[in-house]
Amino acid sequence: MTWTTRQRFNLTNEIASIRSGEGAPVALIHGVGLCADSWGAQIDPLAKDFCVYALDMPGHGQSTAFTDTPELSDYVDRIADALGTIGEPMCIAGHSMGALVALEIAIRYPSMCLGVAALNTVYRRSEQARNGIKERARALSLTDTNDPTPTLERWFATDTSSEAANACRHWLTSVDPSAYGAAYRVFANADGPSDAGLQNLECPALYLTGEDEPNSTPAMSEALATQTPNARAHVVPGAAHMAMMTHPDAVTRALSDFFHRCIEA
Question: Exactly one of 96, 146, 215, 216 is catalytic; which is it?
Fold first, then answer.
């Protein structure tokens, strides 16, 4: 498929969103350096049953960047404030850093969330992984466009010329370098929600990742599910970090089934 730029509307003065469909609301939050259009393969199928809000994270897409140095809680609060304008509880799904944001919203704003799906989310990185991502964060330019090649090689392995990879290349080279660097540093310093937060999570949770994901691994999803009262892990065979783009049918089906269960419970 072709990942096109869809029309946005402003949920708040700071957060832009794609909106499609009617019915119970569901929210989709993308990862670092991307934008709401990375959910392009999920939006239309999910919109047959739900009112889908795909948000641009602060400093990405058409959403306003922070003017100072943000922390993860700043992304969580700004997105939660925007989702609060919808006026009813919803299911929330996030990918990568968006998954960390979604989980923290579910933990800190339980009345807002009927269910949370965390795609390709990290949890208790190894020392080697922590050192690697922090070094990548330090190497990012805050003023010039960053070379996306190493990122695409991690996300897509040898398939860096696919439509999905080319779409990600466009987003990674279009995002404001300063906003990208700020988000990447937040992501590099994150290690997943606290165990206490997970153990007190009130809504159902789905932890989904790719079988071949080297960073947000299946073992991490299994460990998260073990820590969370009403949760399960789901591994997509043959997929890696960008499963929602490379294996869209499997991811859409898993999300749709999960959203239906949470909303109809």
Answer: 96
